[in-house]
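Quick start: what a row looks like.
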Amino acid sequence: MTRATLPIDSVLPQLLDALGQGPRALLVAPPGAGKTTRVAPALLDGQWVQGRQILLLVPRRLAARSAAEFMAREHGEEAGGTIGYATRLDSKAGKATRIIAMTHGVYLSRLQSDPELGGVAAVLFDEVHERSLDSDLSLALTLDAAALRPDLRILTMSATLDIDRFARVLGDPPVIESEGKSHPLTLVHEGRDPAQRIEPQMASAIRRALNEHDGSLLAFLPGLAEIERTADALGALPPNVVLHRLHGAVDPAQQRAALAAPRPGMRKLVLASAIAETSLTLDDVRIVVDSGLARRPRYDRGAGLTRLVTERASRASVTQRAGRAARQAPGVAIRLWEEAANASLPAYDPPEILEADLSSLLLTLLLWGERDPARLPFVDPPPAPAMAEARQRLTRLGAVDDDGHVTAHGRAIAGIPLEPRLSHMLVEGRERRFRSGGGH
């Protein structure tokens, strides 16, 4: 595979120098600069690496697999050789694998089983601005583990990084900034009627965009239901337009097809969730149509449940989305809101740690051996009331005893990749079935 020149290439020597002299750095690079796929391979030959692994943490399973497959192709291999990936449902990595792209959940399991990260030279945090619970927890525990591993390199990367907050928790490391690609991007704001459903309005905007602009089109919608309803509202498409859906429930083969370039003479239309916001390149996309909406988890303390709610996307998110259109050529981003509304968008997605049920986080911390999260280097410390509520919940579930120690039941719960209450139900059901002689 021929290596194209990417903007990130010009700052790689500076980044290598920074990590050669110290253990931490911040990298800020716009969408399309190449940070996800170029940085890890560039570090392999650093003297401090000494044949050890480099772990690249990405927010989603699709991004982990896609990044690994792309890096492997540039290396002249298939994924699973020098470069591989590890996700909860799919992994390709062996004893000779030097770079592993992985999700935060898989990384946390590895870190719990090996707090010193033996055989690991560096941990790279991609798109840290997304501020998921697992991302913040992974960074805090990695920084804590670095007390045992002063040689461990830690690099945070993002297109829209809140530099001051991350610099503070990382100890004010060097900041390396990369330029983005120079392809022009045209922003078009189209108002929408908030009293009407978003799907027919998205369908109308998509049809107009296909008629008025060249290239393939990527449309951002909050989730699966809106994707399906928009697909229905589109009706019959021109014969040269192929419709793809891109979200977490789509099987890997369909995901790869949505990312790949269309056949000659064809255009693709990709209806996507936030899965397509970061760490991915969708070949041939020149048009983005953005609903301006996002689906986020919100903890309802009254009901004691985490719900998915649809909200306005942040400025950081819509910037990422628009950038998808100009990664390979000049593009246009069509936004379904008035330009004046940009100022009222939140600057960044709110950190999940400030609003989520923290039962899972607390259980992980207790297994880590830390009962006081205030002693860990979180970008945003977990709120004390939420931690107290989480402790009460874990005690009621029998996961933690009255002295705050994790029980055998708690360890069984932690071994299931679900939130503690659902894990408790599965473990309890299995134990009852065994006690009643119900088999295995």
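That is the whole record. The longest helix spans residues 420-435. The longest strand covers residues 293-300.
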